Amino acid sequence: MPFDFLSEFDWSRLLTLRTGINIVDITIVAFFIYQLIKIVRGTRAIELLKGIGVILLLKLFSMLLQLHTTEFIVNFVIQWSALALIIIFQPELRRGLEHLGRGYLFGRRKKSNPSEIVVGNLATAIQYMSKRRIGALISIEMESGLDEYIKTGIKIGADISSELLINIFIPNTPLHDGAVIIKDFKIMTAASYLPLSESPAIPKKLGTRHRAAIGLSEATDAITLIVSEETGEISLARSGNLITEMDSNDVIEYLNKELVMNTKEKETQGPIQQIIEAVRKGVSGK
Q1: CB environment 130-144: b (16+ within 10 A), e (fewer)
Q2: Is the pTM value of this prediction over 0.70?
Q3: What does the alpha-carbon distance between residue 239 and residue 244 come to, in Å, rounded to a whole number?
Q4: Which residues on neighbouring strands pair with residue 235, listed in sequence order?
Q5: Which residues are bridge partners to 276 per DSSP?
Q6: Count of CA atoms in the C-beta half-sphere (13 A) of 102
Q7: β-pairing, 179-183 with 186-192?
Q8: What is the tens place of the pLDDT at every residue in 28-64?
Q9: Are 160 and 185 within 8 A, CB to CB?
Q10: According to DSSP H, which parts of 41-161 are helical?
């Protein structure tokens, strides 16, 4: 039989203290190599490591073909490489030691919840614009896709910041008309066109921004924030309803409930539960 040697092998030779120590040794080395790759990933150190790899290949190539002059030069470079690497990789080495000192190598650093950052920046921007009566229209994609409305605007694709939101809606700037659409915690577009509601129940005093916000809420489950240019009043449209006379605290409370809590619930779900939930929503149409 081809596997008879397995039955004749003395497996007790593997179960020794030395074998266990070797496994621990290899595991520690592999762990630190992995952490080193994580630290230098995305930095210039990656390109430098590629250069070192080329030098090592050149060393091997010169040895195999007995290129004595090339090998001499490569050996000279390698002899001085230790000092050169300390100088070149000084920022990465310092960052690695900082990670080690803070314990990030052995534990996952707590990351900021992106939805909490979104809520904070939105509230700050809304409050600033409300006080100065700067008109604004900001829609946040939820479960329903907003791609057809995103296509009508000017692409931005930037991280959300209160300063950027405020600057977009400053009067007489190219992007201040229309809506900002937020998707996947990014400002996807500005100056997007939203569908206007034709509901006769909307008070005549409300302008185009409010009608656009209500129109989008009738077609999707998006959350849309409105700042009135005439009064500075903050409103929120969702599911065909308009909540008026809000302040920044009301905005924070509402968005924390709808964005932050939902994000945390999704994080606690496994991939199977998320797929089942997506299928359920697709079947029910909710």
Answers
A1: beeebbbbbbbbbee
A2: no
A3: 14
A4: 226
A5: none
A6: 10
A7: antiparallel
A8: 888 877 776 666 665 556 666 677 778 788 888 888 8
A9: yes
A10: 45-64, 68-79, 81-88, 90-102, 114-131, 147-150
